[in-house]
Amino acid sequence: MKKLITTAAMAVSILLVSGNSVFAKESVASLRGTQDIQGSSLKVTKKKLVSQEGGFERSYKQQPPMIPHKIDKYKINLKNNGCLKCHSKKNHKKEKAPMLGESHFLTRDGKKLDHVSSRRYFCNQCHAPQVDANPLVKNEFDGLK
Fold first, then answer.
1. Helices (H) and strands (E) in the chain, counts
2. Is the pTM of this model over 0.85?
3. How far is 107 from 104, CA to CA, in rounded Å?
4. Which residues of 32-55 are buried (b: 16+ CB within 10 A; e: fewer)?
5. Mean pLDDT per 10-residue run, the chain (145 residues)?
6. Domains defined along the chain, listed by start
7. Would you give the end-to-end CA distance of the chain in angstroms?
């Protein structure tokens, strides 16, 4: 048994060292492209935010809605949530904004609250603004029709 393990370990070592192995450096593809991992990062280009009247179509059931407007000036911390200025039960009609879903007022045990649940308070954990950018990888997902 010991001889079999030693032989197998030697065979794996030879495969790893040889240039024809499936583990060869050339076969690994990266989103960085040819950018050296030790080198400086490329400068990030700022993308244009996409605003869309009426919101974005959802790709699947129960997908959190995407944010159809700028949020860069909104503050969301333990004392303040800029989203609630328009989307709260109290303000949504006056602001002509969609109200938070009923799920945002439930505890994890299903108990209904009169205020936003702490587990749904940080909106940008699930909801995100959209930018005009090309996808990083090819995507053939169709979603709902």
1. 3, 2
2. no
3. 8
4. eeeeeeeeeeeeeeeeeeeeeeee
5. 74 66 60 80 85 90 92 92 94 94 94 94 94 88 80
6. 49-132 (1.10.1130.10)
7. 58
